[in-house]
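Practice problem: Two-component response regulator
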Amino acid sequence: MYKVLIADDEKNIRLGIQAMIKREYPDFETFIASDGKEALDGILKNKPDIVITDIKMPKMDGIQLIKELQQQEEIKTSIVILSGYDDFTYAKEAIKHKVKDYLLKPVNRTELFKTLNTIIEELENSQKMTYQHLDDYRASQLNYILLNPNIQQEDVEDLYKKMKIDSYPDGYYVGIIQVDGGIDGEDFLNKINQLLYSSSDSIPFLDKDGRVTIISADFEQFSILKEQLGRDRHSIFTIGISEKAEDIREFKKTYGQAAIAIKYHFLYPRRQIILYENVKEKPEVVSLPADMINKISNMLGTEREKEIKDNLRQVMDFDVIAHSSIDYLENLNEEINETIFKGFFKRLGEESLVTFELLNKIDNIYNFDNFHEYFHALEDLLMRIHEYNKQVKAVYSEQKYMDRAIAYIRENYHKDLNLAVVANYISLNYSYFSHMFKEYIGQNFVDYLKMVRVESAKRLLKETDFKILEISEMVGYKNPKQFARVFRDVEGISPKEYREMNG
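Answer key — structure tokens:
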């Protein structure tokens, strides 16, 4: 709804324009004035969005009125002037003062509406830009408050004033919305803004994790959001809501409550609202089942697969986890990572990371949508490690795998040979073979192949008359420069120098 003031000393003209506006724009609020002084008082009092003023008026003409308004910083209004054909000199003077338009008397209905529609469009676009700028500014400053551990109370108060956030005298809540399904944060924020369009006391923004966060004085807003979002049957969401807070300066603490509440979405993904007051009393569990976790680690690679799974289910007992603080599950995950996974990969080296990339994800439970998805991934990773260990032990116990690999290398070193070819020949996983080869031989595959080729080259250099170029190809190097470089790296001298010394 916009406010319009019409100023003209001719009663029929001002009332006629008012009637036309009321019929075309019934939501508009209109005011009238019969002279410039009355118009100025009405503008200062009512702060209209649009002023339609005659140029020639008693007490204060339209030009003087425009000049007075431009000196009032708090008055932001769009001005349209009315003039007769013989007032063109005045009209030109008014135009210098950046009026939006001028209309000739008698006012044509079509021209009036065209002018008003143009001004309305400009006002709406300007308002959108202002709101967007304020929204972006609020989001950046609210996140600054949340992320800055050393921010001072007086700085916080100053920021709230700049953000135009009132003190919420009747209290407020903070809600964080967790949505499954990979919905873009900005798109979801736009959706929430539309749903909250009629709520002037709710402030939505994206927190540092890209989640829609809402400050609202009205708890009922969250219930309305739940109902509206719930209409989409494919949408899985949870709103974590803080306790009621009285002081906006406590926003950081209140946000923390909502952040704790929303963590329980991980355990209850179908629960659409989780209140901090309902989870804050969940007990902290100091003692972790460290012995059982260690037992699982020790059993990996044995024939006790069923026991491993049974122990894992006991460790990850959902009833215990659900009745404990969410910190318990977070600490449990950390203990499993430290005892089983990190120690395992430390022993096996970087090669195994290719095979078990899931470790990077399972390091944080919140990389998964819910507890059951996390548990199945955890069990899957344990079973993969279990099978890996069994194969590693089999390789250690059956030396024939390495014997076959070495024999194959020594018979085929002159060919285009690499680790994958040899691993495939003896039917072992690439990563397993890479690790076991180094363990067995004492050097990696590339260095061992170089050694075998250089040994053969030394024999040919001493016992035959083949050219160095020919010997290079005979030992598997098509590029003689590469052959010379490898030979020098291994022996410290060039192939030519070696032949001269041993000829």
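Discussion: The beta strands are 3-7, 29-33, 50-54, 78-83, 101-104, 173-180, 202-206, 212-216, 236-241, 273-275. Students who identified this feature from the tokens alone can consider the problem solved.
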